[in-house]
Amino acid sequence: MLQTVWVSSPGSWALKKPGCHRDGKQINWKCGLVRTIIQHPCPRHYPKGRRKARMLRKIQICLCFFFISGILYEISLLSGCFFSYMPMSKHFLTPEQVLNLGKSIIFLETTERLEPTPLVSCSVESAARIYQDRPIILFMKGLTNDTALDFNSSYAAFSLLSSMKNVFIFPLQMETIFHETPLLQWYNQVDPEQEKNWVHVSSDASRLALIWKYGGIYMDTDVISIRPIPEDSFLAAQKSRFSSNGIFGFPAHHKFIWDCMENFVLKYNGNIWGNQGPFLMTRMLKTICNLTDFKGTEDHSCQNISFLNPQRFYPIPYPAWSRYYQVWNKSPSFNHSYALHLWNFMNNNRKTVVAGSNTLAEKLYKAYCPTTYEDLIQNAELRDLTLSEDAV
């Protein structure tokens, strides 16, 4: 749109029709940039008029710069270009702003722990590397809005994860998450002190509410990502006819997730481990699908929900979980897997990755979370060795 402004005399401004010529200056405006055409019917006004034109030009260029910068910033948020900015810029965003970017990968820590374990760090890092154009969010119950933790934190894993451009760490505020869902009334009535499985039950509820509200993929903090999941609406089969809730993905406001939240409340029994988790997902899936055994590496589909083969995430079943911490003569390729669940719940002996052990888990760390491996495992052991030698 072209608009013509005439200055008939210094300090006097009036809008005139384009093409109307009088003494003074003609200034054409377009996209906030200024083009001046100077006429000199009165030479004594020339120097002062030119200074005004220059000043006006500078003002308009500045305004145009801020306007264009704002547009580019909004576009960058939608396009994923945001993650090319410096890490500090992300600390000004709220959980809602990040979640509203869409297609988040969500992790939950429902204990009070503030220092992520190497396995948690590996899970988050591997997701950040595989899904570089998507927000990776770790919600931690131990955090509060007043907790001053960033990439300069004394917690090594926290510092490591905070420095990754697409990783965001936020406090887990359950009441806010459950707002406007069937879970809020349950949450206000339940007594966490009387719940023997509260850490797991509260996690089961939180993941449902977050995926319902914002969509994306939920992953347990012992899941190592190895390639992108191509599905938008999916459940992960732990075995034939049985669904896990350790990893699943849906668009926002999907009916299946809403139905799961309603059933969560209706059939609530916190004394039975998994009743609000994998058993919930399985019984809800059975209400809409005729589940059959898997053959080979095929996936099943029902009502636009993909029920993914156990090979996708559970090529090593939970009875054999310790094989991740053993040395293999020939490591498996996992060519049919999108991610690997390391069954940390079964790891009562707290087996860990040890540098130089050549276990399957160590090889996975090196391949899919190399920063975690180097900073939290290899360097930590070197520091411990140095301290031991100094003590001697």
Automatic annotation (TrEMBL):
Keyword Transmembrane: yes
Family: Belongs to the glycosyltransferase 32 family.
Gene Ontology, cellular component aspect: Golgi membrane
Predominant place of localization: Golgi
Keywords noted in UniProt: Glycosyltransferase, Golgi apparatus, Membrane, Transferase, Transmembrane, Transmembrane helix
Domain annotation Alpha 1,4-glycosyltransferase: ranges: 250-374
Membrane-spanning ranges: 61-86
A Pfam family per the record: Gly_transf_sug
InterPro entries hit by this protein: A1-4-GlycosylTfrase_dom, Glycosyltransf_32, GlycoTrfase_DXD_sugar-bd_CS, Nucleotide-diphossugar_trans
Location in or out of the cell: Golgi apparatus membrane
Protein name, UniProt field: A4GCT acetylglucosaminyltransferase
Gene Ontology MF terms: acetylglucosaminyltransferase activity
Membrane topology summary: Single-pass type II membrane protein
Biological processes, Gene Ontology terms: protein O-linked glycosylation
Keyword Cell membrane: no
